[in-house]
Each structure stands twice: as C-alpha cells, then as structure tokens.
Amino acid sequence: MIKKNIQRIIQYRMCLLKFQNLGFERIFSYTLAQEIGVSPEQVRKDFSQFNLRGNKKAGYKIQDLLDKINELLHKEDIHKIILAGLGNIGKALVQYKGFINRNMQLVAGFDIDPAKLKKNCRIPVFHIDDMPKVIREEKARIGILAVPEQVAQEVCNQMVEAGIKGILNFAPVMLKTPEDVTVQNISVCNELEALIYMSEKTTDKKEKEKKGKKRK
C-alpha cells in the first residue's frame, strides 16, 4: 500500500511542477485527481497520510506542497546507484540522461565480460567480484540488477551484504531479500500482459454495450 501511495506522490509532484511552470500558485485536489486519474478523496487521503496540508476552499499552495514532497522524497540529496549487468538493458540505462535531473547518480557498473570493463562507457565498469568493495567505498544504497536470471539471486545477495537497501530488478525472477531491503521488479512482458487484459476487457465491454443497444 505504501509503495502505491509513494508512486502517486511522485505523480502528484510531476503535475505540481507542470502547473507551477504554467504560472499557477495554488491547486485543488480535484484538479490533481483529474490529472492522475484518481478521485479527489484519494488525493486528500494520500496528502493526509504524509501530512501534506491545504485549505479546502482555497486549495493547496503549490510551492508548499513541492517543498514538503521534495523533503519526503529526499530530493535535496544525491542518491548514488550501482548497476550490475552491462547487457542491452544495462547499456541503455548507462546512456540514460534522466538520472541526473532527478538527483540520481549512476556511479559504477559491474559485469563478468572483460570486454566491457572500463571501455567506452559513461561510468567506470568493474568486474562483478569488485562490487562489494565499490559499493562500500561509494556508500551506495540503491542497486539496479540487469543480469541473467541464473545468477540474479547470487548477485542480489552480494548487493545486500555490501549494504544495498533498494534493488530495481530487471531479471525475470523473484528475489529473496531481508525485510529491510526493498525490491522493485520490472517486467516489460508482465506490463504488456496487463495492458492486453485491460484493453481486451474494455473492448469486450463496448461490444456487449453495442449488442445490448441493438436488441433494444
């Protein structure tokens, strides 16, 4: 539940920045609700849970909300991230320029392929065996796992033992971690299957509505 709430808070922040850039100083819960696709009650419930206050009649001050959300998300800090696996996904992540705009710094990559070590890369790349040492030296707390599923749990264990507390997992396997380590699983196929289900469900509903109208 907390994870979904935080994801919505992040979406609220993006909308708040959008409206601030358009010149707005205040915003109402129903406006944010329309932008995100939730109810105004859900917006107020999320804000209340994280102690984000506003005025029902006058709305919320956008800058006040942004200040509190930025503090909540530790936006003032630089968050160091390491990457295990320099295959296609890993290479794409290394080239991604959006991290720096969100105060995230990809500080090191790791792989077992000698051809990928420290060559033609935006970040230093080390052998996977050096990962625990580098994690401790950099004091990184977030790791991205983009290795084959056969070794994913082993690499995950190395990350955790070295102090990683959050893992973004691209490997098609459910990782086992201690309770104080959070794992976010990313599966393009799973997301597409969910989209297929929802799109087919919507299509079926419309077809039934059409048939119902014809019968009348």
Give an overview of the whole structure.
With 216 residues, the chain is an alpha/beta fold. Helix content is 51%, strand content 15%. Helix 1 (2-21) crosses helix 4.
Keywords:
216 residues; alpha/beta; Arc Repressor Mutant, subunit A; Rossmann fold; six-stranded parallel beta sheet; two-stranded antiparallel sheet; 8 strands; 51% helix; 15% strand; globular
Could you name the CATH homologous superfamily of the largest domain? NAD(P)-binding Rossmann-like Domain
**Helix content range:** 40-55%
Tally of individual domains: 2
How many beta-strand segments?
8
The best one-word shape is globular
pLDDT < 50 stretches: none
Strand-residue fraction?
Answer: 15-25%
The CATH topology of the largest domain turns out to be Rossmann fold
Order of strands, widest sheet: 5-4-3-6-7-8
The class by helix and strand makeup works out as alpha/beta
- CATH architect. name of the largest domain: 3-Layer(aba) Sandwich
Query: Measured on Cα atoms, how large is the radius of gyration?
Result: 22 Å
Mean pLDDT: 88
Kindly report how far apart the N and C termini lie.
Answer: 44 Å
Count of individual helical segments = 9
Main sheet record: 6 strands, parallel
* Secondary-structure element string: HEHHEHEHHEEHEHEEH
